[in-house]
Write a structure and sequence with these properties.
GO terms for molecular function: kinase activity. This is Histidine kinase. It comes from Acidovorax cavernicola. With 260 residues, the protein is mainly α. It has one domain (13-206, 222-248). The protein contains seven helices and seven strands, in the order E-H-H-E-E-H-H-E-E-H-H-E-E-H. The strands form three sheets. Strands 4-3-7 form a three-stranded antiparallel beta sheet. Strands 1-2 form a two-stranded antiparallel sheet. A two-stranded antiparallel ribbon has the order 5-6. Helix 1 packs across helix 6 (176-199) and helix 2 packs antiparallel against helix 7 (221-257). The longest helix is centred in the C-terminal third of the chain and has 37 residues, at 221-257. It starts with 12 loop residues before the first strand and ends with a helix. The relative contact order is 0.18.
Length: 260
């Protein structure tokens, strides 16, 4: 292996297996979020906050954040990379909260709102960018980052556009076949934003990585995140579809006993 020189611009590589996993988890997270979105408002016209929370976790925590983190793990440099745990946790919480607020603004108030959609799209797009670059700054490694701000701006545009498409699709598609196609489009859009954002940074070799007692890492983290995210999605799907099936008989019973 060629020895590293301080000040050297490093050439990253990607683990194609983890890149594929990052797309798959984004696709499945987006699909479950679309299914949740169709059930966010109950028959009484009021938002079901539990399902809003499930949609936020599916979209923000799985479709966006887990994709982002697996994509970060796919990024390979000639030395080990670990991740600052507090920043990583904050980025996860931020992704879920922002997605929940954006979903509620767009369609959690009885019907799809164009003004809410626009506000939610801007909020979600900027929030995704903050989460993404926060995750990059969580990297603990023997390198510093130099950014190409034209690429950063492009990633912001992609993020806002992807958020707008995701929110529109979430509240305007009901057929499962359409939702599957939409989830694939959303997965591609989220991955494109992530990898454009990664390409915005040049990594410059330093003498040593900074000390970080709260850093986490490991060669199996990508599979661990994928497996955990998959289990969470299965649980969310079970909760949401189960609650919908329970609500239907209850509604029909109320209609039968209502006095004429």
């Amino acid at each position: 292996m060629t020895p590293l020189v301080v000040g050297q611009v490093l050439s990253p590589e990607y683990s194609l297996g983890l890149v594929a996993l990052s797309f798959l988890i984004s696709f499945f997270g987006s699909l479950v979020a679309l299914i949740c979105a169709g059930r966010m408002v109950g028959a009484d016209g009021k938002p079901n906050l539990a399902i809003v929370a499930c949609a936020a976790v599916a979209l923000g925590g799985i479709g966006i954040w887990s994709m982002h983190f697996i994509g970060m793990l796919a990024y390979r440099l000639p030395f080990g990379i670990s991740y600052n745990m507090p920043l990583t946790i904050v980025s996860l919480v931020a992704a879920i909260l922002i997605s929940g607020i954006a979903l509620y603004l767009a369609g959690g108030r009885r019907k799809f709102s164009r003004s809410g959609w626009l506000a939610g799209s801007l909020l979600a797009g900027l929030g995704v960018c903050v989460m993404h670059y926060m995750g990059m700054f969580a990297m603990n490694m023997r390198a510093t980052m130099s950014f190409d701000f034209s690429m950063v701006a492009l990633s912001v545009v992609i993020a806002i556009t992807a958020a707008a498409a995701a929110l529109w699709l979430a509240f305007n598609l009901r057929k499962l076949s359409h939702q599957v196609a939409a989830a694939a489009v959303m997965g591609v859009a989220v991955c494109t934003m992530h990898y454009v954002g990664m390409n915005a940074a040049s990594m410059i070799c330093t003498a040593a990585a900074p000390l970080d007692a709260l850093a986490l890492g490991g060669s199996y983290m990508g599979l661990t995140v994928f497996g955990t995210a998959g289990a969470v999605l299965i649980f969310i799907y079970w909760v949401v579809t189960g609650s919908s099936l329970d609500a239907a008989p209850a509604a029909s019973t109320q209609q039968r006993v209502r006095p004429s």
